[in-house]
């Protein structure tokens, strides 16, 4: 009886100690090409959308249900278009230059998680007016049209 009980206990512990690693499938291994795609997606979105203010390119970078959590506010594609219209209405708007420092890019099946520092300079002709720094993260998902940003989170960086 004791040996039978001991076998049951050993069997229980040997089965319960096996852990599943959910990120070991081939679809979760990120390639160098996918890292380049992720970086180009972030850089392109900031250059074309936030610096270039080109609302016709929003769906080149964002999903239709994209949101950004920006310092406590929720922005969607409609609010971003309004922001662009307001900025374009100002003739003396500064030129924005974005520089990214990537912290991590990880893949989880059909999605990528990207963490980065976003540093921007704002120029008027040849003069630097001011700089901005944000700590940001993004979720990119694979769609029928390629990789697109589904969600971003941005906070002022107080380094």
Q: How is this structure best described in words?
A:
The protein is an alpha+beta fold. The protein has one domain: Nuclear Transport Factor 2, Chain: A. It contains four helices and six strands; from the N terminus they run αααββαββββ. The protein has a six-stranded mixed beta sheet with strand order 2-1-6-5-4-3. A hairpin with a 2-residue loop joins β3 and β4. It is globular, with a radius of gyration of 22 Å. The N and C termini lie far apart (65 Å).
Q: Could you outline the blueprint of secondary structure elements for this entry?
A:
Layout (H helix, E strand, L loop, with lengths): L1 H15 L15 H20 L6 H4 E9 L2 E4 H12 L6 E14 L2 E14 L2 E17 L2 E11 L3
Defining traits:
single chain, 159 residues, alpha+beta, Nuclear Transport Factor 2, Chain: A, 32% helix, globular
Quick structural overview:
By secondary structure, the protein is α+β, with helices and mostly antiparallel strands.
Determine the number of helices (DSSP H or I, runs of at least 4 residues).
Answer: 4
Strand content: 35-45%
**Residue runs with pLDDT of under 50 for 5 or more positions:** 4-25
- Taken in chain order, the helices and strands follow as HHHEEHEEEE
What is the percent of helical residues? 25-40%
* Overall tally of structural domains: 1
What spatial order of strands do you see in the largest sheet? Answer: 2-1-6-5-4-3
Query: Mean pLDDT, rounded to whole units?
Result: 87
Rg of Cα set: 22 Å
Could you tell me the CATH topology label.
Nuclear Transport Factor 2, Chain: A
**Shape verdict:** globular
Termini, distance in Å?
A: 65 Å
CATH architecture: Roll
For the record, what CATH class applies?
Answer: Alpha Beta
Helix and strand composition category:
alpha+beta
Q: Could you tell me the number of beta strands? A: 6
Tell me about the biggest sheet?
6 strands, mixed
């Amino acid at each position: 009886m004791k040996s039978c009980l001991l076998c049951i206990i050993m069997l229980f512990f040997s089965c319960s100690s096996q852990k599943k690693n959910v990120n070991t499938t081939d679809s979760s291994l990120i390639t160098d090409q996918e890292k380049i795609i992720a970086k180009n997606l972030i850089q392109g979105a900031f250059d074309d959308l936030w610096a270039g203010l080109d609302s016709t390119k929003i769906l080149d970078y964002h999903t239709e249900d994209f949101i950004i959590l920006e310092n406590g506010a929720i922005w969607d594609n409609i609010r971003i278009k309004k922001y662009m219209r307001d900025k374009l209405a100002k003739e003396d708007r500064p030129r924005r230059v974005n520089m990214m420092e990537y912290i991590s890019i990880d893949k989880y099946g059909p999605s990528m998680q990207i963490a980065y520092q976003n540093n921007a300079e704002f120029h008027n002709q040849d003069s630097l007016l001011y700089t901005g720094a944000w700590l940001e993260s993004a979720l990119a998902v694979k769609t029928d049209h390629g990789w697109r940003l589904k969600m971003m989170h941005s906070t002022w960086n107080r380094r």
